[in-house]
Specification:
The chain is mostly helical. Helix content is 77%, strand content 0%. The longest helix has 35 residues, at 2-36.
Amino acid sequence: MSESVERVARQVDRLCWTGILLGLAFTMTNVQQFAAAGAPVWSLAWCAAWLLDPMVSLVLLAILRAEQVTARYGVRMGGWVRAAKWFTLAATYVMNTWSAFVAGSAALVVLHSVPPLVVFVAAEAVTELRDKLGVAVNAAPSAPQAPVPTAPRTSFADYLALARAARTPDVKVTPAWVREVTGCSRGLSSRLAAALTEDGGRS
């Protein structure tokens, strides 16, 4: 059961991060257009505009990843970390929707609002999702383990019968010889050798 929960946790983690990365990739072109402000293509200002969104997004991804790791150990981030996350999210949203608000187009506002808002919601949810799924993994019952079959115990009489069957008239009965033919323990071999010697005295 816990293995299936862990598998779901990994899938949820990957899907959330994929959605965040796709959302940030979508916003990159909008932010570039906002920063370029109509500059000619391949001009210095146009090329430099491509650096604005990755600058903000990389800081945001670093904060999200750090929050996800520290949340597993119950470590709370400080106020500056929360402020940095909210600022980068807000900056991404404003730069994506500014042109749409200026144009007064509700459709463009919605179009450019969805990706940043998805990133914002996923950023807040991914840490808690991972934390709660970790709790579920620990709470899930373990699969019952099959009992390990045990070999039947060999008795003294069984070892003695094996030694008697292997004994020939020219054999000198010693504990070492008994261990060799029966595979018994060192302590038991002395008793078996004594019993075989008594057999030879009575025969």
